[in-house]
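Work Package 4 report. The design task specified in the project plan requires that, given a folded chain encoded as structure tokens, an amino acid be chosen for each position. We show below one input record used in the internal validation round.
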């Protein structure tokens, strides 16, 4: 009874929020754009480049409103949510443009309001609309989103899945310490704080090791174990999956304690996050680091595909989950975007896009996803390279030219972060299947087909008057058109 009551109030609250959000939207049209992706996927760089290009009238030929000259101006305004940290746009742009370094990792939620004044394309609309659209951009960690499936899972389900995944060959060595510890404790023993802490710390260390590992394994819930924020050390974060659960748990046992804390995590962490942030989104971009996964080989690709599947299923309506039912009806477009395509020659951009298409298609099918348009793009929010050719004997090879980051290595050479270098980036395979084929049991046995070099952000061109031009990109305009273009029609 108690649980259905909570559900009812949660539901009523969300419905009210949604209604008032829509009513406010009638007077000044707003669009809430969620930007997510696993850590280091490129969220901060994407938002900075998007806003910079819109404010500075960057070259965006595929963004129709801009191309046809209908955008009067775009500018930043105060965001509507006082309790959410502001996306520090100015700092990130200063890093990119002035210092030519990538912005720092952000690891939490932040928000920015960009307002666009435009002239409608249709005479009818021009008569009735003010030609003003506010886009509220919300940057949040994909890791937190991946907590949603927990709402539909009992502690026993959660434990079983975590144990199964940890035993997979790609993860077994990283999870060994935790698995040994988990096997050594008896869930039916008396609840003990130190045991709970040891288990939680060991489990969190395993999740972190997955993230840091060069195999680029994607994340497993609970998301706050990786990014605890101010909840570090709280009971709601001091639990871990258990093995050998008993059917009838004893009050006062370790199992009962862990189960209670798992439920507290859902109530105090997961639900509020979805209620306050995710349920209000209209559009969503999911950034993925396909380049890193390609670098790491087919097992990492499979892992990335699994993460995208999980993320998409968070946006699937009709899962019988009160949270998703309310918000997923609202999100009508989702873009799955592979950033960092500037590490490839343009001849491979379409191949990268085909790989992302395959990945998203399979994720859509596996998540049985419907209810929103899903599109894909291979892009670079900030293009750090330009293209050229190098003559080698009688052959002319296509190369990319940029400044490799300090300490990047190719063929035994280490870069100093200052020297501009031409690099033959290698091609993506023509056949998409190759990158998805699962290798044998151990990942180390398969040589990654491709090795990419990371570059510093580009040096910006200046006009004769000394004005710096906007940040160069690859297909950012295509992403912008899909995400907001129709609202400026
Ligand atoms: N070449 C290139 N590299 C990029 C691009 N976008 C991101 N990167 C690289 O990816 C790294 C992570 O980008 P961020 O935008 O900070 O990623 P994030 O998703 O905000 O990361 P967290 O805040 O840690 O979750 C950067 O430091 C760059 O090295 C891009 O468009 N081109
Ligand atoms: Mg960030």
């Amino acid at each position: 009874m108690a649980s259905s009551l909570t559900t009812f109030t949660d539901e009523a609250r969300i419905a009210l929020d949604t209604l008032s959000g829509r009513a406010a939207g009638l007077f000044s049209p707003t669009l809430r754009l969620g930007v997510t992706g696993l850590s280091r996927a490129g969220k901060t760089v994407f938002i900075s480049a998007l806003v910079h290009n819109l404010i500075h009238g960057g070259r965006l030929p595929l963004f129709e409103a801009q191309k046809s000259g209908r955008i009067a101006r775009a500018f930043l305004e105060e965001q509507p949510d006082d309790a959410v940290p502001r996306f520090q746009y100015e700092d990130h742009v200063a890093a990119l443009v002035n210092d030519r370094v990538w912005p720092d990792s952000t690891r939490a939620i932040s928000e920015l309001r960009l307002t666009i004044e435009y002239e409608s394309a249709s005479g009818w609309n021009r008569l009735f609309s003010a030609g003003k659209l506010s886009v509220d951009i919300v940057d949040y960690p994909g890791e937190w989103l991946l907590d949603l499936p927990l709402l539909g899972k009992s502690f026993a389900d959660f434990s079983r899945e975590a144990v199964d995944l940890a035993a997979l060959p790609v993860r077994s060595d990283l999870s060994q310490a935790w698995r040994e510890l988990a096997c050594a404790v008896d869930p039916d023993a008396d609840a003990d704080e130190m045991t709970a802490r040891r288990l939680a710390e060991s489990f969190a260390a395993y999740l972190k090791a997955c993230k840091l590992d060069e195999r680029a394994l994607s994340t497993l819930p609970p998301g706050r174990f990786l990014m605890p924020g101010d909840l570090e050390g709280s009971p709601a974060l001091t639990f871990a999956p258990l093995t050998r659960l008993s059917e009838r748990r004893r009050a006062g046992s370790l199992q009962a304690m862990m189960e209670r804390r798992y439920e507290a995590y859902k109530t105090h962490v997961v639900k509020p996050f979805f209620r306050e942030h995710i349920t209000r989104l209209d559009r969503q971009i999911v950034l993925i680091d396909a380049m890193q996964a390609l670098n790491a080989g087919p097992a990492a690709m499979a892992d990335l595909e699994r993460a995208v599947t999980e993320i998409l299923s968070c946006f699937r309506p009709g899962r019988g989950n009160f949270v998703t039912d309310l918000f997923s009806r609202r999100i009508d477009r989702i873009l799955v975007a592979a950033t960092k395509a500037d590490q490839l020659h343009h001849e491979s951009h379409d191949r990268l896009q085909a790989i992302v298409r395959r990945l998203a298609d399979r994720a859509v099918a596996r998540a049985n996803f419907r209810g929103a348009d899903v599109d894909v793009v291979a892009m670079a929010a900030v293009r750090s390279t330009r293209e050229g050719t190098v003559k080698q004997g009688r052959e002319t090879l296509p190369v990319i030219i940029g400044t490799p980051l300090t300490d990047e290595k190719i063929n035994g050479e280490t870069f100093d972060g200052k020297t501009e270098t031409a690099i033959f980036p290698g091609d993506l395979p023509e056949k998409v299947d190759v990158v998805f084929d699962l290798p044998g049991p151990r990942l180390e046995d398969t040589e990654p087909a491709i090795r990419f070099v990371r570059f510093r952000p580009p040096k910006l061109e200046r006009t004769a008057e000394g004005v710096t031009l906007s940040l160069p990109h690859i297909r950012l305009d295509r992403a912008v058109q899909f995400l907001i273009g129709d609202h400026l029609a």
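Residues 1-6, 440-446 have pLDDT under 50 and may be disordered. Validation will be extended to a larger panel in the next phase.
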